[in-house]
Design a protein that fits this description.
Blueprint: E1 40-41, E2 47-51, E3 59-65, E4 69-78, E5 91-97, E6 108-109, E7 121-128, E8 132-140, E9 150-162, E10 165-166, E11 173-179, E12 186-192, E13 195-198, E14 200-205, E15 208-212, E16 219-227, E17 232-242, E18 249-254, E19 260-261, E20 270-275, E21 287-292, E22 297-298, E23 306-310, E24 316-319, E25 321-322, E26 327-335, E27 344-353, E28 358-362, E29 365-369, E30 374-384, E31 387-388, E32 393-400, E33 404-406, E34 409-411, E35 417-424, E36 431-437, E37 444-452, E38 458-463, E39 469-470, E40 478-483, E41 492-493, E42 496-504, E43 528-537, E44 543-546, E45 557-564, E46 571-578, E47 614-617, E48 627-630, E49 652-654
Parallel strand pairs: 1-3, 10-17, 19-27, 29-37, 29-41, 39-46
Antiparallel strand pairs: 2-9, 3-8, 4-7, 4-9, 5-6, 5-8, 7-49, 9-11, 11-15, 12-13, 12-16, 14-15, 16-17, 18-20, 20-24, 21-23, 21-26, 22-25, 26-27, 28-30, 30-31, 30-35, 32-34, 32-36, 33-35, 36-37, 38-40, 40-44, 42-43, 42-45, 45-46, 47-48
Length: 680
């Protein structure tokens, strides 16, 4: 080392920092100053190093906790090289509510130290019985303390999840906040200990986890976090609802149809909505079982008579009905029948008819935006007692309004179908027309084109709103539906929908957005990487779908999209692309930073040791390591000051199934000879 020159004056004190390469690091004690009455806030990471540096020293921290949660507190005793040890500190852990007065026995505690199979590790598993503030205490089993009684501590605790309701089909991102998260952990969704499904982790930081949910039956589920490296765990009970909840409702919003010939499709679809108990909040991804009687086929089931479907982001699901026999056909929609008993059900009936000549017109009413120029396909089917009639002429005519039908005369095909296209040019009013069987123009069916004003438009989310991916993955398209303002609303065709996409560097927003967020950041200065404006036109179902582009960037970013049409309220979307999971810097590894050897303090005769039995000489310089000097260690084996006796009146309970069974050879008794790692 370089010579150190000091100038001294008789009768004065002088302090000089001396730095040595490879010397010991006195890791700052995260708990100072702290006491039972004035604990320190738990570090935001839930991970810290500390020391019990003097006789009777205890460390205390506080955190906010919620009921129906469990957590694990881990304390690893360290030697003076930062490695786990059983030869120094014998950590014990206690937990109280913050309101507990001094002297209150902790209701959750470890009755012995080193109670796991991991070297130097003491672990407390606790259950939170109410939502309040809690205190965590760390002490030596003997009430001892000295400067080399160092430890590495971690609290694994899952606190809250956003959103608290997801689709039963899975694939939705959730944000879990808490303490002590690190890479290598697992997350499962479970209603019982024997049935669980793993979630896919997208992003891990000490205080946040982002994951995508697995497909799960409609139900209220728990979330369990586990660290396989240490066995630490945290469970959040009843925090996440998949699909329909037990109090949700299903309502028939459309389904009335006139008598329909056998072999034809009912004019209007059967549509239901699922909402929460308030009747207003749409439920996305709820399971609905469709079924039909009397030989009918359902479009939602690819022509079959029964199947399961999921509601979209507006809480809707619908099916068209093909009549299979004369008589009453009953269509039933059942909400989550596999999850709740008795399930909630709605029904509608359609009468099937048959005659010597039946003409059916599919989707006879179409709603179109004012001023649209487009083509509308119409399909008719000619039947005789349910049997398709081929090679029969049908005439298409316009009676009210303007437009062009092509072709105007059509011959039915082998399945009895005849098709014609109505061309509209700058729609200025309603259009009405007919299709009739030639040559007598009987029977006939009427079709309608209904003009919709831009001021009557409304936008609905259909799919793609809830997406969070990692770099290298691809976003799914965003789909929206445009309707009029009628009750029930009808899809509007031909609406130009503007999609404004902007690609930004990530900001400080949460990585998972929920319905109701405006989707746009309020940060004043955002770094724009690219933008685009795309206009898409809605189809006959009122749908427009936008493929989401990341602009060719392969890095973390956010895509913000605004969809607008007419004077309807725009829809906002924010889609994060997160970095690939990497080990958390400074995360829980079971070890503190490696200190070097403990250096000797030389004291001249007559010198007094510094207060608090610890003396530190350090200075921050590049490529240098501070040294730590210790003097006057006091050793005593009094009972630990945490007074660990059980008290069931506290809102925290021990959830430790290990019963503090220390492995052989791990625990050292108070009278065991101390290792002489520290030179005094």
């Amino acid at each position: 080392m370089q010579p150190v020159v000091m100038t001294v004056t008789r009768g004065s004190d002088l302090q000089q920092d001396i730095l040595m390469n490879g010397s010991a690091v006195d890791t700052p004690d995260a708990s100072v100053p702290a006491s039972f009455s004035a604990p320190r806030a738990l570090p935001k990471t839930g991970d810290w190093t500390g020391e019990l540096g003097r006789y009777g020293d205890d460390d205390y921290f506080w955190l906010n906790g919620q009921t129906n949660r469990t957590l694990t507190v881990e304390v690893t005793a360290l030697d003076d090289t930062g490695q786990p040890t059983v030869g120094k500190l014998q950590p014990v852990i206690g937990m109280w509510s913050l309101a507990a007065p001094p002297g209150t026995p902790p209701p959750a505690y470890t009755s012995s130290s080193l109670n796991t199979s991991s070297l130097g590790l003491t672990q407390l598993n606790a259950q939170l019985l109410s939502s309040t503030q809690f205190r965590i205490g760390v002490a030596d089993l003997r009430g001892d303390g000295r400067p080399d009684f160092r430890y590495h501590a971690r609290v694994l605790y899952g606190d809250s999840v956003t959103p608290n309701r997801v689709s039963a089909r899975g694939g939705m991102p959730i944000l879990l906040t808490g303490y002590g998260f690190k890479t290598g952990m697992t997350m499962t969704v479970d209603s019982t200990a024997s049935v669980s499904t793993s979630a896919t982790l997208l992003s891990v930081s000490p205080g946040e986890l982002v994951a995508t949910t697995p497909p799960t039956a409609d139900s209220v589920q728990n979330i369990s976090l586990t660290d396989p490296a240490t066995g630490a765990s945290s469970t959040l009970t009843g925090v996440l609802t998949f699909g329909a909840g037990p109090n949700d409702t299903i309502r028939l919003v459309q389904g009335a149809n006139s008598a329909t010939p056998v072999g034809a499709e009912a004019a209007y679809p059967v549509r239901v909505t699922v909402s929460s108990s308030d009747g207003l909040t749409a439920v996305n991804g709820a399971t609905v079982q469709w079924s039909a009687t009397n030989g009918a086929g359902l479009s939602a089931c690819n022509g079959a008579a029964t199947c399961y479907a999921f509601t979209d982001e507006s809480g809707q699901v619908e099916t068209r009905v093909s009549i299979g026999a004369v008589g009453t056909t009953t269509i039933t929609a059942v909400l989550a029948p596999a999850s709740y008993s008795p399930p909630k059900t709605v029904q509608v009936s359609i009468n099937g008819t048959s005659s010597a000549k039946d003409l059916a017109l599919f989707s006879p009413k179409v709603w179109v935006i004012q001023g649209a120029t487009l083509d509308i396909p119409f399909t008719a089917r000619l039947l005789a007692n349910g049997v398709p009639q081929s090679a029969q002429a049908l005439n298409w005519n316009i009676g009210i309004g303007s437009g062009t039908l092509s072709p105007a005369a059509v011959t039915t095909d082998g399945a009895g179908y005849a098709r014609s296209t109505l061309h509209l040019n700058r729609l200025a009013g309603d259009v009405q027309g007919t299709v009739c069987v030639a040559p007598g123009n009987a029977p006939c069916q009427t079709f309608y084109v209904i003009q919709v004003l831009p001021s009557a438009l409304k936008l609905q989310r259909v799919s793609g709103s809830f997406q969070t991916i990692r770099v290298g993955q691809t976003f799914q398209p965003i789909s929206i539906r445009v309707t009029n303002s009628a009750t029930p609303p009808n899809p509007v065709m031909g609406v130009p929908v503007s999609f404004q996409s902007m690609i930004f560097l990530p900001d400080a927003d949460e990585p998972v957005e929920i319905t109701g967020d405006d989707g746009s950041s309020q940060h004043a200065m955002k770094v724009l990487l690219g933008s685009s404006l795309v206009t898409l036109v809605t189809d006959s179902n009122g749908l427009a779908s936008l493929p989401v582009s990341t602009g060719g960037f392969s890095r973390p970013l956010e895509v913000e999209i605004t969809a607008s049409a007419g004077t309807g309220t725009p829809l906002q979307f924010e889609l994060p692309m997160l970095p690939a999971i990497t080990p958390t810097p400074g995360g829980s590894t079971g070890r503190a930073r490696r200190p070097g050897r403990v250096m000797e303090q030389r004291i001249r005769p007559g010198d007094a040791p510094r207060p608090q039995a610890q003396r530190e000489i350090s200075e921050e310089l590049p490529s240098r390591t501070p040294i730590s000097l210790f003097v006057d260690e006091i050793v005593d084996c009094r009972p630990n000051s945490l007074n660990f006796a059980k008290n069931q009146s506290e809102p925290v309970a021990r959830a430790d199934a290990k019963k503090d069974a220390s492995p052989a050879g791990q625990k050292r008794e108070c009278d065991t000879e101390r290792s002489d790692d520290t030179q005094k």
